[in-house]
Amino acid sequence: MAYKILDISKYQPNVDYAKTAAAVDGVILRIGITYWGAQNMGKDECFEKHYTGFKAHNCPVGVYYYSAADSIEMAEKEAEYCLLLMKGKQFELPVYYDVENSQRQGGLKKELLTQIVDAFCSKVERAGYFVGFYASTSWLVNKMDTAALSKMYTLWKADYRTNYDKAIKCDMHQYTSGASVAGIGGRV
């Protein structure tokens, strides 16, 4: 059975939560980001508003953290920051670790990026959350040991092609960034 799950962040600042919640089966909100330049961490500026709005309409919520970690230590700092941002919140869907930052992660060895993903996910999982990782098919094939990580964590794969990759088994498939959903103007 397919579910309609929406990925949402500050790029969708104006939401009619009642209409959108009625149109989807759940939302994955960007909770935070590490900016690649100086690796400063910050909360998504619309997270609180989106969290409160969707929760008020009984819409299942999960989150993702956009990483720029290029070391295990930085991934652990991101996990600690993400846990701080999640404090006092209730999630029905997973906490995902988004790894796709070309500037900081694009040139890393496969083994190191795999360890980075595991460092974040294991720390958040130990805190009691259901966790997973997110990447495009290209990154899943070329940049990390997806088979090993998939045995431990849920996988959210981004592949927008009509003939998308079916070999990499995933729990969630992001198939577009150009859809429209009731209650939100613009692409989602």
The major β-sheet equals:
8 strands, mixed
H/I helix tally: 7
- Radius of gyration, CA atoms, in whole angstroms: 16 Å
DSSP, total strands: 8
Overall 3D shape: globular
Please mark out the parts with pLDDT under 50 across 5 or more consecutive residues, or reply none. Answer: none
Strand content: 15-25%
Keywords:
188 residues, alpha/beta, 8 strands, 35% helix, globular
Molecular structure report:
- The radius of gyration is 16 Å and the shape is globular.
- The protein is of the alpha/beta class and 188 residues long.
- Strand 1, helix 1 and strand 2 form a beta-alpha-beta unit.
- Helix 3 runs parallel beside helix 5.
How would you summarize the topology of this molecule?
Blueprint: E1 5-8, H1 17-23, E2 26-34, E3 41-43, H2 47-55, E4 61-66, H3 72-86, E5 95-98, H4 102-105, H5 110-126, E6 131-136, H6 137-142, H7 146-152, E7 154-158, E8 172-174
Task: Give a nutshell description of this structure.
With 188 residues, the protein is an alpha/beta fold. 35% of the residues lie in helices and 21% in strands. The protein has 7 helices and 8 strands.
